[in-house]
Write a structure and sequence with these properties.
Layout lengths: L6 H7 L21 E5 L2 E4 H14 L10 H24 L6 H14 L4 H10 L4 H23 L6 H10 L6 E10 L6 H20 L4 H8 L10 E6 L5 H8 L10 E3 L2 E11 L5 E13 L6 H16 L4 H8 L11 E6 L5 H9 L9 E2 L3 E14 L1 H32 L2 E3 L5
Antiparallel strand pairs: 1-2, 1-11, 3-4, 3-6, 5-6, 7-8, 7-10, 9-10
Helix pairs in contact: 1-2, 2-3, 3-6, 6-14, 7-14
C-alpha cells in the first residue's frame, strides 16, 4: 500500500480508542499482499496492517523517535486489529446494525468537528488518498463497536443508592483531580520466578531512563508498554481520587507532579504510574428559576390559531390585574401545574423544555411573557424569581454513580474481551510474533 497519510487523515482514522482498520479496495491489492493473521474464518492482510501502522506513524510524524521499532509497533497494531475484527464479527452476529441515516449523521458530526462542510470533507479525503466509501466503512465499524460495548454492559451494570452512599462514606468525591499515565510490563499467567524478576527489572530500567531524561514517559509508554493505551503514550486521563482503585490512592497522593512510582506488581504484570498534573475542583452552582405557567393545548379539535387567541385573551386579563394563579386553575391545560395555580416550582432553565427556557432568559422577575408556541400548544409564563443553587452535593452523588458504573462497565467489558480473544482461533504470521 503506497498511500501517503497526512496528519489530518490520520486524525480522521483515529476517531476512537479502538483502532478500526480501513480495508483497502480489492483493486489496490497486489500479488505481494500476504496474510499477517488468521482470525477465526477471517484474515488480516499485510496491506491492512501497513495501512494501520501508517496511520499511527502519521500521528507521530513530528515525533518519530517516540515510536517503538517497526516490529514492535506492528505487533501492537496487529493485536488491536485482531481484537477489533473479533468485536465486529460479534456485533454483526448479535444483530447490531447502523442505519444509513445514522451513519450520515455521524459523518455530518465529523465534518462539523473539523469545521468543514461535507463536500469539503469529501474533497479533503480525496486529496489525502482515501475514498469516501472507505471512510464511511471505517466510521460504520466504529459505531458498531460502540454499540456492542453499550449493549453488553447496559444490562450488566446496575448502581444502587446503597452503593453510592457507601462510596461517599469512604471516599472524597468531587475533590482534587489528577491526570495519570501508566506503563505496564506484562507477565504471562503462571509466570515463574525468573520471568517475574525479568519483568520487574525491565520496569525499573524504564523508570531509570525516563528519570534520567533519555526519553519522556509518553515515548517510553509507546515503546515499551504492554497496556492497551500504549499508543496513546500511556495516558489515562483526568481522574478524581474516588475513581482510582483504592490500592493506588495512597501511592499517588505521595507523588509530586511529574514523578513516577516504583514498579507495582498487579495481576497482569508490573506497572509504573506517572502523576502528570493536578487540579482543584471548585463549588458547582446552577441557575434555577421559579415561574408560573398557563398552557392552552392545540389539538385536532382546537386549531393552533384558536389556542393562540385564547392565550392572548388570558394574558390581557393578567396584565389588566387579574390573578395569574386563579386564571391558571380555571383555564390551564397543564395537568402538572394547574391545580397549584400554574406554579412550576424551582427548576433548571430547560427543565420544562427549550421553548420555556428561552422565554425565561428574556424575562425579568415579575414579568409576564407574550404567548409563545411549543410543540404542545401555546404558553404564557410569569417569571417569579431566579437563584444560584449549590448543586455540589447533587453532583457528588451523580459523580459517584458514574464512577461506580464506569468501573463496573470497564471490568465487564474487559472480561468480555478476554473471553472473546480466548475463544477465538488467532494465528499470527508476523515474523517473530
Amino acid at each position: 500500500m503506497n498511500k501517503v497519510f497526512t496528519p489530518f487523515l490520520a486524525a480522521l482514522l483515529a476517531l476512537s480508542t479502538v483502532l478500526v482498520p480501513v480495508t483497502a479496495p480489492a483493486q489496490e491489492t497486489t500479488p505481494i499482499d500476504g496474510i499477517v493473521a488468521v482470525v477465526d474464518e477471517d484474515v488480516i492482510l499485510r496491506s491492512e496492517l501497513d495501512r494501520a501502522v501508517a496511520n499511527i506513524t502519521a500521528q507521530y510524524a513530528n515525533q518519530p523517535g517516540q515510536l517503538p521499532p517497526r516490529d514492535v509497533l506492528e505487533r501492537q497494531v496487529l493485536d488491536r486489529l485482531v481484537l477489533s475484527r473479533l468485536q465486529l464479527a460479534r456485533a454483526r452476529d448479535s444483530g447490531i446494525r447502523v442505519a444509513d441515516g445514522e451513519l450520515a449523521q455521524a459523518i455530518e458530526s465529523v465534518a462539523a468537528r473539523n469545521q468543514m462542510s461535507q463536500d469539503q470533507l469529501r474533497a479533503r479525503l480525496a486529496q489525502d488518498g482515501l475514498s469516501y466509501d472507505e471512510f464511511r466503512s471505517s466510521l460504520r465499524d466504529e459505531l458498531l463497536l460502540e454499540r456492542l460495548q453499550q449493549r453488553y454492559v447496559q444490562s450488566r451494570v446496575q448502581v444502587s443508592e446503597a452503593e453510592i452512599d457507601q462510596l461517599l462514606a469512604v471516599r472524597e468525591i468531587g475533590g482534587p483531580e489528577v491526570r495519570l499515565a501508566n506503563i505496564i510490563v506484562a507477565l504471562p499467567d503462571g509466570a515463574n520466578a525468573e520471568e517475574v524478576a525479568t519483568a520487574q527489572k525491565k520496569a525499573r530500567d524504564i523508570k531509570t531512563v525516563v528519570e534520567r531524561g533519555d526519553i519522556d514517559f509518553a515515548a517510553a509508554a509507546i515503546r515499551f508498554s504492554d497496556a492497551p493505551n500504549a499508543l496513546e503514550g500511556g495516558d489515562i486521563g483526568w481522574r478524581t481520587f474516588d475513581a482510582i482503585p483504592p490500592a493506588f490512592v495512597g501511592l499517588i497522593q505521595q507523588l509530586q507532579k511529574g514523578q513516577i512510582s516504583e514498579p507495582i506488581r498487579g495481576p497482569g504484570g508490573y506497572q509504573l504510574i506517572q502523576l502528570v498534573d493536578t487540579r482543584e475542583a471548585g463549588v458547582q452552582t446552577m441557575t434555577e428559576f421559579n415561574a408560573q405557567g398557563i398552557l392552552i393545548r392545540a389539538t385536532p379539535t382546537v386549531p393552533s390559531e384558536t389556542a393562540r387567541q385564547k392565550a392572548e385573551a388570558l394574558r390581557a386579563r393578567i396584565v389588566a390585574g387579574e390573578d395569574f394563579g386563579k386564571l391558571a386553575r380555571e383555564h390551564s391545560e397543564d395537568t402538572m401545574s394547574r391545580n397549584d395555580g400554574g406554579d412550576m416550582g424551582w427548576f433548571p432553565v430547560n427543565a420544562w423544555g427549550t421553548s420555556v427556557g428561552n422565554q425565561l432568559m428574556q424575562l425579568q422577575d415579575g414579568e409576564v411573557s407574550q404567548p409563545f408556541q411549543s410543540e404542545v400548544g401555546w404558553h404564557i409564563i410569569k417569571r417569579l424569581g431566579s437563584r444560584e443553587q449549590d448543586v455540589t452535593e447533587q453532583n457528588r452523588r451523580n459523580q459517584a454513580r458514574e464512577i461506580i458504573a464506569q468501573r463496573k462497565a470497564e471490568e465487564e467489558f474487559e472480561r468480555f474481551l478476554r473471553q472473546l480473544r480466548a475463544e477465538a482461533f488467532v494465528e499470527s504470521r508476523l515474523t517473530g510474533a
